């Protein structure tokens, strides 16, 4: 499930989890489950950060004005 | 002396030729204050230039008026350029104005202030209209020139800070007559096809003229109408354009726009790490407090010495059994006593007890107890019951009364 979440969603969920854990009013089994979920989210966020590769495209108006993506070449 | 009279036209033509032939009057530059400024439907502008003592009629034809970059207003001090010509029909001379420059400031500066005042009055700069930028944009549309340093700076900084964001360049001209329409068109296009969740438009530094497209009303209105949040990034730090005022966010330079647009990868690593630390600490705290509670429970006697508990329960049980026995004993005794009483009462009422004193009971052959001699007839059979047996008898005679 964590795989399908965006970075932003993962981060939001992570924040929620940490706040819950910090409140410390949950049964042990729930705390452990949250902790495990949080660890998973941390791993997937780190992975997203590590593996990200910037995509740059140039847009052109194609047929029927539809946008067409072209590779962006350095024109400098 | 006979003089031949000139016609009015001839005179006016003569003056016109004189005026048209004068080199100074062919290219004059005159300072004054604007009054009676009128724009005709034809597109020609008519006005009077005046100073304290004198006034001069002026006309600015459509093709020159179109090049005005500010809106002339009555009372404005200006320098007018043009040539003096004679209007034959009225015999009047006027200035055919080809350009107007506001006094004190450049015309662009005046135009800028005028546009700013106009759009501000319309509410285009209102804070309430400004949209929040997405904290983690997935796609950024950059509307700028595909050449030039600005786009490369932005791509480099975006890639360095947040490579997860896709960069989509919508190439446009950023200076020249075509630029405003192209920039405004690209902003509308990005909205129409939902190309990105954030737009950056701007260009690198240049002269006021170079940056002028970003002071254009069309660009300002396109930014205002954009549903996608817009960052304006024009020129260097001190350059402020109309786009900057309308945009949801102003960046001082294109590079600054890239910094504003996305979070920083390294800072994010740090905050992920802090989440990790916080969740670990919270978990440790939970476990610690649970183990403290466990310790507290462990120190209770019932857990440290289970025998005590059992002994107590055993004693409780004994006491309960005693109470139960005593209770049942009492109940039994009471029952027994009432039984004895009942037996005695029964005994006292027993006919056998009467018989034992010598009485007998007579009954007819059907077993019906006979209580009166009136129930008897001579010769009748009856049974007489004694304590220890029964005699069959026959009635001989009957005597009533004692």
Architecture overview:
- The complex is a heterodimer of chains A (76) and B (402).
- With 76 residues, chain A is of the alpha+beta class.
- Chain A has one domain.
- Chain A contains two helices and two strands, in the order H-H-E-E.
- In chain A, strands 1-2 form a two-stranded antiparallel sheet.
- In chain A, strand 1 and strand 2 form a beta hairpin.
- In chain A, helix 1 packs antiparallel against helix 2.
- Chain A is elongated and about 60 Å long.
- The N and C termini of chain A lie far apart (43 Å).
- Chain B is an alpha/beta fold and 402 residues long.
- Among the domains of chain B are: 97 residues, Nucleic acid-binding proteins (OB fold (Dihydrolipoamide Acetyltransferase, E2P)); 127 residues, Lumazine/riboflavin synthase (Rossmann fold, 3-Layer(aba) Sandwich); 42 residues, no CATH class.
- In chain B, 43% of the residues lie in helices and 22% in strands.
- Chain B contains 13 helices and 13 strands.
- In chain B, the strands form three sheets. Chain B has a five-stranded mixed beta barrel. Chain B has a five-stranded parallel β-sheet with strand order 7-6-8-9-10, sandwiched between helices. In chain B, strands 11-12-13 form a three-stranded antiparallel β-sheet, with no helix packed on it.
- In chain B, strand 6, helix 5 and strand 7 form a beta-alpha-beta unit.
- In chain B, helix 5 runs parallel beside helix 9 and helix 6 packs parallel to helix 7.
- The radius of gyration of chain B is 63 Å and the shape is rod-shaped.
- The model of chain B has no long low-confidence stretch (mean pLDDT 89).
- At the A-B interface, helix 1, helix 2 and strand 1 of A face helix 5, strand 7 and helix 10 of B.
């Amino acid at each position: 499930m964590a795989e399908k979440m965006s970075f932003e969603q993962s981060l939001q969920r992570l924040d929620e989890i940490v706040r819950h854990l910090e409140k410390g009013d949950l049964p042990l089994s729930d705390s452990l489950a949250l902790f495990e979920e949080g660890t998973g989210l941390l791993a997937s966020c780190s992975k997203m950060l590590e593996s990200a590769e910037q995509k740059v495209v140039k847009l052109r108006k194609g047929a029927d004005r539809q946008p067409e993506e072209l590779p962006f070449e350095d024109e400098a | 002396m006979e003089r031949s009279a000139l016609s009015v036209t001839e005179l006016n033509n003569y003056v016109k030729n004189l005026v048209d032939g004068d080199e100074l009057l062919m290219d004059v530059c005159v300072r004054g204050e604007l009054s009676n400024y009128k724009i005709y439907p034809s597109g020609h502008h008519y006005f009077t230039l005046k100073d304290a003592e004198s006034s001069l009629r002026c006309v600015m034809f459509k093709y020159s008026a179109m090049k005005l970059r500010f809106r002339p207003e009555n009372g404005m001090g200006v320098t007018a350029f043009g040539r003096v010509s004679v209007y034959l029909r009225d015999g009047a001379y006027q200035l055919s104005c080809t350009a107007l420059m506001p006094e004190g400031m450049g015309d662009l500066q005046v135009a800028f202030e005028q546009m700013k005042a106009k759009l501000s009055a319309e509410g285009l700069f209102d804070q309430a209209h400004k949209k929040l930028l997405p904290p983690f944009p997935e796609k950024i549309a950059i509307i700028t020139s595909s050449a030039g340093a600005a786009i490369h700076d932005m791509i480099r900084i975006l890639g360095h800070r947040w490579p997860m964001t896709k960069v989509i360049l919508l190439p446009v001209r950023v200076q020249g007559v075509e630029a405003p329409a192209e920039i405004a068109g690209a902003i509308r296009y990005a909205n129409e096809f939902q190309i990105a969740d954030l737009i950056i438009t701007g260009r690198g530094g240049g002269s006021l003229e170079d940056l002028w497209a970003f002071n254009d009303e069309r660009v300002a209105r396109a930014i205002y109408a954009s549903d996608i949040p817009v960052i304006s990034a024009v020129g260097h730090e001190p350059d402020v354009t109309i786009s900057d005022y309308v945009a949801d966010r102003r960046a001082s330079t294109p590079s600054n726009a890239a910094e504003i647009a996305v979070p920083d990868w390294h800072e994010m690593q740090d905050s992920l790490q802090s989440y990790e630390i916080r969740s670990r600490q919270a978990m440790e705290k939970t476990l610690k407090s649970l183990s403290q509670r466990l310790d507290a429970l462990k120190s209770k006697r019932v857990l440290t010495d289970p025998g005590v508990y059992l002994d107590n329960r055993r004693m409780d049980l004994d006491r309960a059994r005693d109470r139960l026995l005593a209770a049942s004993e009492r109940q039994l005794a009471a029952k027994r006593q009432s039984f004895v009483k009942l037996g005695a009462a029964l005994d006292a009422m027993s006919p056998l007890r009467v018989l034992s004193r010598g009485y007998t009971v007579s009954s007819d052959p059907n077993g019906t107890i006979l209580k009166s001699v009136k129930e008897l007839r001579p010769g009748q059979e009856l049974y007489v019951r004694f304590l220890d047996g029964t005699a069959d008898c026959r009635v001989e005679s009957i005597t009533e009364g004692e």
